[in-house]
Design a protein that fits this description.
This protein has one domain (2-232). Helices cover 66% and strands 3% of the residues. It is mainly α. A two-stranded antiparallel ribbon has the order 1-2. α2 (45-65) runs antiparallel to α4 (84-102). It has helices spanning 2-29, 45-65, 69-75, 84-102, 116-140, 142-145, 148-156, 177-187, 194-222, 224-232; strands at residues 109-112, 191-193.
């Protein structure tokens, strides 16, 4: 029964994540969703900035702290290891939902592209960024990354295999293609408002902070294998070295 419950929990956590991911596309690109990045009640600018930064900080702290190995070692004393990743994914999704729900728009236009073809190209570029994000997860192990593989292994009584350093396709050009996709998706827009700019700037800054901690963990786990990979492949820019 415990295995069944863990499996169902993992599937629910994944479903919430995937719905949140789809909503994020609509939120950033102002498509379909009931509240996008420039929608909602307009509040004083300073108030909006403070609230929005706090919201993004909640996500950043949760996302970074729970990803650290030291936290995982402590956390798995309280929750089963099989659902550790699913719990992380669920809480990250809830933190993002909070951002979408409570986000305060700042409608001042920073730039606007009115030429239809150029505007359409920027929207297409943003969608291409989201495609890179999703593709990057499948190039390694999408379902392990979001906790489904772990609860499935637990359900069938199969031990998780030791992970090895994988560098397929996009990972041969940049070390973090997933983050490249996010940066493209966040910045490619025909209408950049102050609120959208704040979102893009803070999330991009967090990406660099996250990479610092993530690579520290990867070096601790893979050692010289990852150090050599880091020397050969650029962080976010193809054909670059650690200077990027």
């Amino acid at each position: 029964m415990g295995r069944v419950l863990a499996f169902c929990y993992g599937l629910v956590a994944y479903a919430i994540f995937f719905g949140t991911f789809l909503y994020a596309i609509g939120f950033v690109d102002a498509l379909v969703v009931p509240k996008a990045i420039d929608d909602g009640e307009v509040t004083p600018v300073l108030e909006a900035v403070v609230i929005n930064v706090v919201l993004l900080s909640i996500f950043a702290v949760q996302h970074s702290v729970m990803a650290r190995q030291s936290f995982k070692r402590w956390w798995t004393k309280l929750v089963p290891a099989s659902v550790e990743r699913s719990t992380y994914v669920l809480l990250a999704s809830l933190a993002l939902i909070l951002v979408f729900w409570q986000w305060r728009p700042i409608p001042t236009v920073i730039w606007q592209v009115n030429e239809p073809l150029a505007a359409s190209a920027l929207v297409a570029l943003s969608f291409f960024g989201w495609f890179i994000v999703l593709l990057s997860t499948f190039l390694i192990n999408h379902f392990e990354l979001f906790g489904v593989q772990q609860v499935l292994n637990n359900f069938v009584g199969r031990k998780s295999s030791t992970s090895s350093l994988k560098t397929p396709f996009l990972y041969k050009f940049v070390r973090h293609p997933l983050y490249v996709g996010f940066i493209i998706a966040f910045w490619a827009t025909p209408i950049m408002t102050a609120g959208h700019l704040l979102f893009a700037a803070v999330t991009t800054a967090y990406i660099f902070v996250g990479i610092f901690f993530e690579e520290r963990d990867l070096i601790a786990h893979y050692g010289d294998e990852y150090r050599q990979y880091r020397e050969k492949v650029g962080m976010l820019i193809p054909a670059s070295r650690r200077s990027d």
